[in-house]
Design goal:
With 206 residues, the protein is an alpha/beta fold. Helix content is 26%, strand content 28%. The chain has one domain: Rossmann fold (3-Layer(aba) Sandwich), CATH 3.40.50.150. The strands form two sheets. Strands 3-2-1-4-7-9-8 form a seven-stranded mixed beta sheet, sandwiched between helices. The termini are far apart.
Length: 206
């Protein structure tokens, strides 16, 4: 028996919750070369599309994910313009701030656009850092986290705080979070995985 990777543990938990992985149209938002964790779930999903901004990673993506649809694109632009929708969205976001002008931070700028590409029933996997390392040396990262999570202690997030925050974001965008769990990845890095369902209830205006 070999030790299961964190993503393989996520897959087991998704299966236990009867999420239809084998039928899922999956999207990897930040592909890199596909060798960090995408290889661990690609064989379980119905199909996989990968977005990656760096053309230099294309050969690696083709090698590691030969059956995936690979698109070299700016994910932050693509998510605002694509007409495609997905059943499983995986966001292996970088840490701290990044981009040409540090305009992005973690996965924050993907919201609320991520809801426009989600099917009415969709599972999302996010890269979550509960206790950033060397956080105090990066005031911009501190402020961006404080603003996004609406907290005065962004250096340490509780599990309940994380789950409640994303549940609230779902509700604000007309989705109900059905369930969620955190899977430890390394040190203070976790996968937050949740399934959400679009609220189709219509309210009459009197």
């Amino acid at each position: 028996m070999y030790a299961k990777t964190p993503m393989q543990k996520v897959i087991l938990k998704l299966n236990k919750r009867n999420f239809p992985l084998s039928l899922a149209r999956a999207l990897e938002v930040f592909g890199r070369e596909g060798d960090w964790h995408t290889k661990d779930y690609v064989s379980y999903v119905g199909s996989l599309e990968v977005w990656e901004i760096n053309l230099g990673f294309l050969d690696g993506l083709k090698r590691n994910l030969p059956d995936a649809k690979i698109i070299i694109t700016d994910s932050f632009m693509k998510i605002k313009t694509t007409h495609s929708k997905y059943d499983l969205i995986v966001v292996d976001n970088p840490q701290s701030t990044y981009g040409q002008n540090n305009e992005y931070c973690e996965h924050f700028e993907l919201f609320p656009h991520i809801f426009r590409i989600a099917e009415d029933q969709c599972a999302i996997i996010l890269n979550i850092n509960t206790e950033p390392y060397n956080f105090h040396d990066d005031l911009s990262w501190w402020k961006r986290r404080a603003d996004f999570y609406n907290t005065d202690h962004p250096q340490k997030l509780s599990f309940n705080q994380v789950k409640t925050h994303y549940e609230k974001i779902c509700a604000q965008n007309n989705f109900n979070m059905k369930w969620s769990f955190l899977q430890k990845r390394n040190n203070f890095m976790y996968y937050l995985c949740f399934e959400m369902e679009k609220n189709k209830q219509k309210f009459e205006v009197s």
